[in-house]
Amino acid sequence: MLRQIEGSAAVAETVARCRPEVVCAYPISPQTHIVEGLSDLVRAGDLSPCEYMTVESEFAALSVCIGAAAAGARAYTATASQGLLYMAEALYNASGLGLPIVMTVANRALGSPINIWNDHSDSMSQRDCGWLQLYAEDNQEAADLHVQAFRIAEELSLPVMVCMDGFILTHAVERVDVPEAGPVDAFLPPFEPRQLLDPAEPMTIGAMVGPEAFAEVKYLAHAKQLQALDTIPAVAAEFEQSFGRSSGGLVRGYRLEDAETVVVALGSVLGTIEETIDAMREEEGMPIGALAIKTFRPFPMEAVRAALQGAKRVVVLEKALAVGRGGIVSADVRMALSGIELDGHTVIAGLGGRPITGASLRRLFGDAVAGRLGPLTFLDLNWELIEAELGRMGEGGRSGPHAENILREVGVVAGGSH
Amino acid sequence: MERHQRVRFYQVGSHVVGNRLLDPEQRTVQARMDRSNTLTCGHRACRGCGEALGARYVLDAAKRAADGKLIAANATGCLEVFSTPFPETSWQLPWIHSLFGNAPAVASGVAAALRAKGRDDIRVVGQGGDGGTVDIGFGCLSGMFERNDDVLFVCYDNEAYMNTGVQRSGATPPAARTANTKPIGEHLGNRFGQGKDLPRIAMAHGIPYVATATVAEPHDLERKVETAMAIHGARYLHVFVPCPLGWGSEAHDTIKLARLVKETGLFPVFEAVEGEVVGVSRIRRRTPVEEYLKLQRRYAHLFGDPGHPEIVARLQAGADRNIREFHLLDPAGEEVAW
Q: 0.80 cut: is pTM over it?
């Protein structure tokens, strides 16, 4: 049933219908509404049996999930930003142990400077931690991906992050058909762990592995991620059959048929990109399309190559920055396209919640088509501010902290009404 | 009324009352034919390792109390490394090692899963060394206490990071030499301070049960494990375990050192219920700290010519304060009357 509902509430209700047995919560914006919603559902008796644990850190939140999953429980938590970094050690541990935990990442920038708004720096920073990463374009997909995530995680015995843009999705009220309990139960069988802490059959989990076998264990982690390239589309197809709508999968093309220019992106920005593409096609007859990357880990090399190999130019729009180099997604896209000659552009956009407007995108795509775009572009950067600060630094001496200097220059109070 | 005389035990070097003289039912779990050998032979612990001994005493007693249904979550450290040189494992129980700093949280997660599944018959133990407990694992441990999760957490305290080569921890005593508190120049070992007195920090959480013990007294240790296992909620057991390698002591002195640390008053052996001390193991023969310190090369810089009697006096003062605070001497005087 379609309802007007906040993204976080839709995710909380959907997660509850996946019947997690242990939910662990530590507050960090913008994921808080999700775990608050789950707390209400557990307290009201709508989700039972379920242990809802409020812990003292994100590190503990994921560690509790590790223990719970090893003891055979379906385990869930959510985090964002600094919280994801605080979990970093446990992220690698959960994937290394092969524990099928599902976690929502309400994507948010990483400090310093501290910033609560959306970009993909958090989940991108953990792209190599062994978790699968699925990115939602809207709240319907965010809800649906959680049902698929538990299924994928448990089939492969690997943990899955469902990444949804903080605030833009988590706090947006839009129409969502929250998956109903009956179909979810039919789609998602009870969790049957591949390894279990059970006194009836004692098992040692988490032993030390030296040079004689470490590489093989790591290769198996890679092999399992490659298996996921088959599992993820299969689960998405089955989901479509059961629920009557398409969500998830590896990639999704938009107006690619004759596209000479293809914009590659992840998450909610695809909506603005597609509107811009529609306008440019209709008003200028521009052959332009988009490729949404739904699954970033494992990276769908073949699907990306197949979608992009006919293009003349590819613009990868990224909400994260590899400082000192440029794009993160771009590096993977370039690898998928190895041997194919085309113009490649990386655009860093939307950092720390900077709006990505239709007007900016239209200008950007126009520049790309006209050959005015360099290999690396920062969208809507205020060069005056940067040059002023570079100037202060050049004068030598104690020029002071960048963030505070720039804020003084801008003349607004940082953080607005928050 | 039948008068029941309580048998007291003293190990070699004092009045020997052997385990063998007891009724079979009164003997230690370790002395029983049916002990489970939860940490079985073949592991790679050093000769004279107090931690290996402590872990086996604790887990055998806990497993017996749980009718064999016990799961352990282990912090990174010596105990984890020496017990699981895979494909060999010394663990005869379901056992998980995740990270250095999260064993209490992993144990909480296991307990939560069991509760959700209605398996209250299976019990959970978390365990680690002093580094994994008082330092890097402290946040998770305090959280586990505060939530009163149904976990018995056991710290095997050998007073430094032994697995990485004997570096100082928050549980390292004053004046002790470690790899990064060497007596160089005017520095005489580890700094004087309170350290992290985790048993008392645990008590401040008001959890149902906190106890300290040493590997020198298995009857006392096992009784405390049994007491802890009879309770649900967060429980904490702090076991003093000498480390010959890290302390520069003889392997055959492990039990002697564990006995002396109590007899000097340096390590109060007590138990507390809901934050209140309800029992202490009294000092039987008050012993000056020198007798304990001189057996360990980590204190060698305090002795010899000229030595540092003022430092030894400060250590003695700390022991004396424990004796006063915990009433470690029998009220009738130093001689125990029984």
A: yes
